[in-house]
Specification:
The chain has 14 helices and no strands. It is elongated. It starts with a helix and ends in a 17-residue tail after the last helix.
């Protein structure tokens, strides 16, 4: 990337108002994960030439990645008017709707992304999250299953499959799923999710598993402070203090990091 970036930036010094150069930089910075820079160049390209259709995609993508979800939906929708088969445009519109809580709209667009590209299995993962939030656990399971089968070593689809089993009251099955996923918890954030939900599964099965749950609660507290939501730390501390679940049920938080 560095060579291409240097060449494009040098060219831009000589012809700063050439829209295709800005568009090329927007594409390059998107590939590099530098979304603020990508957005700047996409906006400039669009201002210089409103007919550059790809500029709407890169504006929308950059706006999604920088948290401007409504603007992202608007620009990606404009892009789809001219490129109706873009699975990525539907995908990021769906994720933008999901992030602001419009799950029915998210499902509609994520499903369209799969119509356009049936192998876009991460769309199944995000579909599962929206179905889970709406309380349709069977649809959530089906989508997490598709994502997990396609990415068998990915932590998040399997975690969400196990969580959904717990939400459905399939406690032992959820325990088996979550326990089998432990080797794929590569980051502290993943480990926090693993310990929290496995502890929850142990507590949900029956009283004989409380000691196993306490091991997981302690492992959760042993992680770096910033990796564990405060609500989870409070729950773990209470469990360890009392040695058993309190009268209130274990919370099922909606916080789920996104890959």
């Amino acid at each position: 990337y560095e060579g291409a970036q240097a060449d494009l930036e040098l060219a831009l010094e000589h012809i700063p108002e050439f829209p295709l150069l800005h568009l090329s930089l927007a594409r390059l910075y998107t590939d590099m994960g530098e979304f603020e820079l990508s957005l700047q160049h996409a906006i400039t390209a669009n201002n210089l030439d409103l007919t550059l259709i790809l500029s709407y995609y890169y504006m929308g993508r950059g706006q999604y990645e920088t948290g401007e979800h409504l603007k992202a939906i608007q620009n990606l929708s404009t892009f789809l008017e001219y490129e109706p088969n873009s699975h990525f445009a539907y995908f990021y519109i769906g994720r933008a709707y999901q992030d602001i809580g419009y799950h029915e709209n998210a499902i509609e667009n994520l499903e369209m992304s799969l119509v356009k590209s049936p192998n876009l299995y991460w769309a199944n993962y995000y579909l599962g999250l929206s179905w889970q939030t709406l309380g349709d656990y069977q649809e959530a399971l089906d989508n997490f299953d598709k994502a997990a089968r396609s990415y068998p070593k990915e932590f998040w689809p399997v975690l969400e499959f196990g969580k959904t089993q717990l939400l459905m009251g399939e406690y032992f099955e959820g325990y088996l799923t979550l326990n089998a996923n432990k080797n794929y918890a590569a980051t502290d954030e993943m480990k926090a999710n693993h310990h929290f939900w496995l502890a929850t599964a142990y507590e949900s099965i029956r009283e004989e598993f409380y000691d196993d749950a306490l091991v997981e609660w302690q492992a959760l507290l042993d992680l770096p402070f910033e990796a564990v939501p405060q609500e989870w730390r409070d729950t773990a501390s209470q469990r360890i203090q009392y040695g058993k679940p309190l009268n209130t049920p274990t919370p099922y938080p909606t916080l789920t990091p996104v890959p």
